[in-house]
């Protein structure tokens, strides 16, 4: 029983990380119906920015996270401007293919510039302490990850619900043409969406660095995929869905790792994806809107 | 010369050209004028042509984005290698088995996933390609992640040449028929095609199965040339490589797929020592082509008889 | 001889009732019009008949068979063809190929025959080519047969769409706003075309249209749809003077 709760605790931090990344996927898909294949790699860039901020500038982890979020927000805007905006009126498949290209570009540029080897987050950035509560071992990095993630999600909810930007984002994802007619700058709103999504991914990247200690240029692929599955599970385009999906995927993975075969850990994500797509592609919270003929 | 005679003359000329090409290269190989390095790249080129042409049938002509083509290649490779290495069947049985196994995999994967919408289908095929890889990694009979090694080098130029000719012939003949038109109509406007009496699901599956079968053939040829096959060889990166060829060549042009396959093989050989630069280049190719020339090199034009006529200022 | 008998057809989208208790019938060779204000649900009815949507309730009896639940391509094979409100041609294909695709269901060689290039293939292709050309000739499009469909002027695109639909040898042809975007002259030509088509090809036609001159000019009977329900049915003269119909289009009279 205790073992189970321990697994749950671990699953929550992992889930929080997946949720943050999933939010980026879901927001971008919601607004321009694009699966941003490169999103996982933006997370990777965030992790590296955090790493360099800590090692070269010697700051603490919070500043590192902020720096990573800022850099990746800008990166997200640039990617959209350069690679996705020209294809706004093309088919979804064209955008998807381009996104795949951007993903590989980010990965191999990083390898080219920084080298393929993994880097280790210095102990000084975040000294790990364990708290023992009711027989469970809770690490302070679990707390850090979970609390930061929840804080960011709350901030996101606030932005979406109560600010003009958030309203614009909701409007554009519901009906782009109508939003234009209402005087909303669609391009700017899309850029902001990319910025926010990328910033969240960057935060997740730094958390991954703290949580697992090592980072490498190809670290975005698998978590990116799992976070994507999380977004689809919750209902792609639906923000609460991404949060729920992220936690579900995190818990599922810890369970499989803990009780099952860890060789199949990654395959579980693929399996979940196939199941969702075959049974209910619109996800847990999604509603099906047919194509107008 | 009347039309029928004209067609016969052309047909014989084409046969002569093919025979000539085959003989020339075979001569070069037998007399070792064409060295080992050339032969390796020639083999890769042929395999890439088969992969690109078969993927183009699915992505280009049918308009269904499949990102798991390497998975079918894996199924074919493993089937053929198991048949020849473990069960001692002759090579031709291995090749046939590879096609059938990969085609069946195409059917099993295709039927449930081809009813998904465009981008969802793409992700599903990616996931299934990876599932194939992970499954192979966990099967002890084929040595899991270590793969099977010491495979006899049964692939030679006659086999490669025949396989390429077969693939191109089947795809071109299929596309230039009523069935080809049905397949293309699925790409152009799926709903309109349905309403004109085309069973779009059936034709998507047909294209998928045929494409998968040829990917299997390519895998079998690959396995019997490069000594070793491992699950890792057939990962998403491989599918990505094939995708780059098809996009570069032009989605919907068999000629383009062939030209791009040749080009990419050469590029890979040249950049052998710089794998990161190669990947960066591929990524840039994909992005630039999609944004600035989405129809690729050839668009959906083929290097057809009509084009030849126009170039040579032929008779009307 | 009753060709089409639709009863109690209903369809709602997420709480919004698009079509409710829709009942119409058509005999062979009839030319029936379906009119109504924008958003009345006319195209939804067409989509229900051709199998693009599945109704929540009701039956669509066509030549004695219920079409509900059949896939769109099977419905086309049974003899129902249609055109679209926003033209849906195969844009990057030639005019001739567009029609040839519609001829595919009559193809007389198999997949293997195509790949192996058997004599049956060559014969079958020649047949399809001749058949497709024949349809183009009827619509005076044969000299544009190699043009890409997207390059045709609007009026010719509409003719091509009708030509393509006819190449599927339908018993019932459904036209969704065929006169959309046409000027009075083109509309008159279209009226003659529709008359010609009905006579030459011996079929029934069900059409949606907003252009009243067309509707009153060619239709033998008219149904009027408003908010997804039939509010009137009858001969053109009767419909023209029907108070409810006038109110639906123009609103109530102000005293």
Characterization of this structure:
The complex is a heterotrimer of chains A (293), B (316) and C (255). With 293 residues, chain A is mainly alpha-helical. Chain A is 73% helix and 4% strand. Chain A has 11 helices and 4 strands, in the order H-H-H-H-E-E-E-H-H-H-H-E-H-H-H. Chain A has a two-stranded antiparallel ribbon. In chain A, strand 2 (130-133) and strand 3 (136-139) form a beta hairpin. In chain A, helix 1 (2-32) runs parallel beside helix 5, helix 2 crosses helix 8 (186-212) and helix 3 (61-84) crosses helix 8 (186-212). The N and C termini of chain A lie far apart (54 Å). The two termini of chain B are 12 Å apart. Chain B has 316 residues and is an all-alpha fold. Residues 311-316 of chain B have low confidence and may be disordered. Chain B is globular, with a radius of gyration of 20 Å. In chain B, helix 2 runs parallel beside helix 6 and helix 3 runs antiparallel to helix 4 (91-113). By secondary structure, chain C is of the alpha/beta class. Chain C is 39% helix and 24% strand. Chain C has helices at 42-49, 72-78, 95-102, 111-116, 119-138, 154-166, 184-201, 212-218, 236-240, 243-250; strands spanning 2-13, 16-27, 31-35, 57-62, 65-66, 80-82, 172-176, 204-208, 221-226, 229-234. Chain C has a 6-stranded mixed β-sheet with strand order 6-7-8-3-9-10, with helices on both faces. In chain C, strand 7 (172-176), helix 7 and strand 8 form a beta-alpha-beta unit. In chain C, helix 3 packs parallel to helix 6 (154-166). Chain C is globular, with a radius of gyration of 19 Å. Chain A binds chain B through residues 33, 35, 83, 86-87, 90-94, 96-98, 100-105, 107-109, 111-112, 116, 228, 263-264, 266-267, 270-271, 273-274, 277-278, 281, 291, 293, and chain B through 63, 65, 67, 112-113, 116-120, 122-124, 127-128, 130-131, 134-135, 137-138, 191, 240, 243, 247, 276-277, 279-280, 282-287, 290-291, 294.
């Amino acid at each position: 029983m205790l073992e189970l709760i321990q697994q749950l605790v671990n699953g929550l931090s992992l889930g929080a990380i997946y949720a943050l990344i999933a939010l980026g996927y879901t927001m971008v898909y919601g607004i321009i119906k694009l699966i941003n294949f490169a999103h996982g790699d933006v997370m990777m860039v965030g992790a590296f920015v955090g790493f360099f901020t800590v090692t070269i500038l010697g700051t603490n982890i919070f500043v590192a996270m902020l720096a990573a979020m800022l850099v990746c927000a800008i990166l997200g805007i640039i990617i959209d401007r350069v690679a996705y905006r020209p294809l706004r009126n093309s088919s979804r498949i064209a955008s998807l293919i381009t996104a795949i290209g951007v993903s590989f570009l980010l990965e191999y540029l990083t390898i080219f510039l920084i080298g393929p080897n993994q880097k280790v987050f210095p102990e000084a950035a975040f000294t790990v302490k364990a708290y023992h509560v009711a027989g469970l071992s809770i690490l302070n990095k679990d707390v850090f990850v979970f609390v930061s993630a929840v804080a960011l999600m709350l901030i996101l909810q606030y932005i979406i619900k109560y600010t003009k930007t958030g309203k614009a984002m909701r409007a554009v994802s519901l009906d782009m043409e109508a939003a234009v007619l209402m005087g909303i700058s669609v391009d700017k709103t899309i850029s902001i969406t990319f910025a926010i999504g990328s910033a969240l991914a960057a935060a997740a990247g730094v958390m991954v660095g703290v949580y697992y200690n090592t980072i490498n240029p190809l670290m975005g692929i698998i978590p990116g995929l799992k976070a994507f599955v999380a977004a689809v599970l919750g209902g792609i385009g639906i923000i609460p869905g991404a949060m729920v999906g992220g936690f579900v995927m995190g818990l599922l993975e810890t369970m499989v790792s803990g009780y099952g075969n860890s060789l199949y850990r990654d395959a579980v994500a693929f399996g979940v994806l196939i199941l969702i797509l075959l049974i209910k592609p619109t996800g847990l919270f999604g509603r099906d809107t047919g194509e107008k003929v | 010369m009347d039309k029928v005679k004209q067609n016969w003359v052309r047909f014989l000329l084409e046969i002569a050209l093919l025979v000539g090409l085959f003989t020339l290269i075979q001569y070069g190989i037998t007399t070792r004028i064409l060295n080992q390095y050339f032969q390796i790249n020639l083999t890769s080129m042929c395999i890439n042509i088969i992969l690109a042409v078969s993927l183009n049938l699915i992505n280009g002509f049918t308009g269904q984005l499949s990102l798991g083509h390497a998975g079918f290649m894996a199924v074919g490779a493993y089937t053929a290698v198991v048949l020849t290495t473990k069960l001692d069947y002759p090579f031709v049985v291995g090749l046939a088995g590879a096609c059938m196994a990969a085609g069946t995999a195409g059917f099993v994967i295709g039927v449930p996933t081809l009813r998904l919408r465009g981008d969802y289908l793409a992700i599903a095929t990616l996931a299934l390609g990876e599932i194939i890889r992970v499954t192979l990694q966990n099967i002890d009979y084929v040595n899991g992640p270590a793969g099977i090694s010491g495979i006899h080098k049964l692939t030679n130029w006659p086999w490669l040449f025949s396989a390429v000719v077969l693939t191109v012939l089947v795809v071109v003949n299929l596309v230039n028929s009523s069935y080809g038109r049905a397949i293309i109509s699925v790409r152009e406007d799926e709903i309109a095609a349905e309403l004109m009496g085309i069973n779009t699901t059936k034709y998507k599956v047909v294209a998928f199965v045929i494409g998968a079968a040829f990917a299997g053939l390519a895998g079998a040829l690959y396995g019997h040339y490069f000594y070793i096959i491992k699950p890792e060889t057939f990962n998403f990166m491989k599918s990505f490589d094939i995708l780059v060829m098809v996009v570069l060549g032009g989605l919907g042009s068999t000629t383009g797929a062939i030209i791009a396959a040749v080009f990419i093989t050469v590029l890979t050989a040249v950049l052998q020592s710089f794998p990161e630069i190669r990947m960066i280049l591929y990524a840039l190719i994909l992005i630039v082509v999609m944004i600035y020339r989405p129809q690729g090199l050839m668009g959906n034009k083929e290097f057809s008889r009509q084009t030849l006529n126009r170039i040579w200022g032929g008779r009307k | 001889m009753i060709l089409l008998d639709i009863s109690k057809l209903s369809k709602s989208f997420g709480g919004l009732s698009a079509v409710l208790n829709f009942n119409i019938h058509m005999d062979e060779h009839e030319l029936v019009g379906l009119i109504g204000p924008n958003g009345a649900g006319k195209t939804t009815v067409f989509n229900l008949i051709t199998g693009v949507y599945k109704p929540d309730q009701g039956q669509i009896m066509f030549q004695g068979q219920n079409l509900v639940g059949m896939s769109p391509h099977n419905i086309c094979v049974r003899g129902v063809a249609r055109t679209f409100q926003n033209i849906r041609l195969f844009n990057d294909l030639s005019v001739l190929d567009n029609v040839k695709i519609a001829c595919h269901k009559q193809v007389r060689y198999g997949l293997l025959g195509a790949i192996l290039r058997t004599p049956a293939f060559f014969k079958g292709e020649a047949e399809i080519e001749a058949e497709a050309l024949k349809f183009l000739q009827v619509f005076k499009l044969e000299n544009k047969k190699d043009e890409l469909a997207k390059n045709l002027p609007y009026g010719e695109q509409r003719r091509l769409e009708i030509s393509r639909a006819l190449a599927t040898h339908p018993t019932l042809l459904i036209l969704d706003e065929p006169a959309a975007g046409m000027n009075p002259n083109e509309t008159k030509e279209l009226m003659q075309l529709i008359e010609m088509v009905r006579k030459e090809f011996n079929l029934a036609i069900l059409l949606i249209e907003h252009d009243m001159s067309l509707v009153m000019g060619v239709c033998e009977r008219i149904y009027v749809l408003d908010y997804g329900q039939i509010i009137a049915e009858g001969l053109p003269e009767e419909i023209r003077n029907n108070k409810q119909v006038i109110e639906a289009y123009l609103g109530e009279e102000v005293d």
